[in-house]
Fold:
Amino acid sequence: MGEGMQHTWTGVRERVAALREHGGASGVFGARGHGFELQPPMSERDVRALEAALGTELPAEYRSFLLTVGAGGAGPEYGLATPLHGEGGWAWRGVGLAYEGITTAVSDAGLPFAPDEVQRLLDAHEGEEPEPDDCPDEEEFQRACRAWDDRGDELYDAQTAGAVFITEQGCGYNSLLVVTGEHRGTIWDDLRACDAGIVPKGWSFAAWYLAWLARAEAAAYGA
Structure:
């Protein structure tokens, strides 16, 4: 781990612990989801095993966070998902969180991240919905509708390939951490619940997390 990355997270775990002990922190948005509890940091060995399963190195800021601050727990919104190894291999899960959120399998996170391209395919797909007049009978029409629905579901899921559902925002919205491609290491908003798509938040992982921590401290301590 580079010296700069170590410096990024200096004192962060202690600051989160102080919030956990402070009564005023209970009113911070999302606190009921994570209670300012951090999972223990991951070992270098486990991080490397996760990266081997992922097929690429984790973004540097996130990697150093896992090693020095915690594997998940306290963080923006209702808390960070944690990478865990289980029966099905590695996956990010909402362990220890009141709202578990969406699980991300490592096999999905390791795929290319291309939401704009997939959105174009989805837009084209919407214009291909089967019509009864296009089919010889009702049975064929129903079969065509099922195939169209299945393809739509496939494309919907493909929009988040290459990213991790890192936090749940509530009301069906999520935050994504991109782990592959040119946008790796950045945070995106999944706003598909209101048909607003998947859009960049404009922050790296460290900027996003540290901004949340500063806001939480200001709210708790009355700054």
Q: What stands out?
A: Residues 138-158 form the longest helix (21 residues). The longest strand covers residues 163-170. The radius of gyration is 20 Å.
